[in-house]
């Protein structure tokens, strides 16, 4: 069975950049065999974050999330490979860093800091539709 080459959006969130983990995160992506197609450092404004996180509007962590994502620079990456959308989310680990499996980015480097939003180092698109929408947003 063959699979299509996909592209996904990876964001190193402000906590990952501030903790100097951008290289370690990219190292894991490349070591897995995925290809870096484009990369840029961005200071995101509220407008792009409102679009990026539109699905979460109204949830209790939405405002803290949008504020946290504006708290410092973010590194955006366009990453390619067969099943990379699913594959990067496995590399990232589950959303809650406390219970994310060791060996994953969130499991190895993340923890709960007692804040209103979980700081979990990375974002990865969750579907083909999300990746197309998000890549258009961050690599316009
Ligand atoms: P993911 O980033 O794993 O796709 P998501 O899209 O559901 O998770 O949520 C976006 C971010 O919001 C997530 O990375 C961390 C934060 N978050 C999600 N659910 C949360 C919750 N219940 N409490 C605090 N922060 C949360
Ligand atoms: Mg998500």
Automatic annotation (TrEMBL):
Record's keyword annotation contains RNA-binding: no
Catalytic activity: a 2'-deoxyribonucleoside 5'-diphosphate + ATP = a 2'-deoxyribonucleoside 5'-triphosphate + ADP
SMART domains, A to Z: NDK
Keywords from the UniProt entry: ATP-binding, Kinase, Magnesium, Metal-binding, Nucleotide metabolism, Nucleotide-binding, Transferase
Name this polypeptide is given: Nucleoside diphosphate kinase
Entry similarity comment: Belongs to the NDK family.
Biological process per Gene Ontology, one example term: CTP biosynthetic process
Residues reported to bind ATP: 13, 61, 89, 95, 106, 120
Coiled-coil stretches noted in the UniProt entry, renumbered to this chain: none
A Pfam family recorded for this sequence: NDK
Co-factor(s): Mg(2+)
Location of the active site: 123 (pros-phosphohistidine intermediate)
Span of domain Nucleoside diphosphate kinase-like: 5-140
